[in-house]
Write a structure and sequence with these properties.
Elements: H1 2-12, H2 14-20, H3 28-46, H4 49-75, H5 85-103
Length: about 110
């Protein structure tokens, strides 16, 4: 359910999420909402055996795209939201672990 919570947060704290989307992406507010909706739908999909593997594939793809955001946060002081650099670096292997975990459900 962590993905559902993350998805809801896109609507509760949209500025925080829009701030970390790289500027070369157009329509960042819309992308934020789409990402939130996707996370909620994929989290629901994980609950049912019939949709679990497709939801896991969706999460794997989503996490792959989100790597762009993690690298952007490392390279853009504003996007880093004041987080320590070591925390931002630590998030990268964590992202890979989450991707591997999603892959195990495909």
């Amino acid at each position: 359910m962590i993905y559902a919570l993350a998805g809801v947060m896109h609507f509760i704290k949209p500025r925080m999420y829009v701030k970390i989307i790289p500027h070369f992406f157009p329509y960042r507010r819309i992308l934020n909402h789409l990402a939130g909706i996707a996370e909620i739908i994929l989290a629901i999909g994980l609950l049912f055996k019939e949709t679990q593997s497709i939801a896991a594939l969706g999460i794997l793809l989503m996490l792959t795209v989100f790597l762009i955001v993690h690298f952007h946060m490392l390279n853009d002081k504003k996007a880093s939201m004041g987080l320590q650099r070591w925390i931002l670096i630590l998030r990268l292997p964590l992202q890979l672990v989450l991707m591997w975990w999603a892959y195990t459900y495909i």
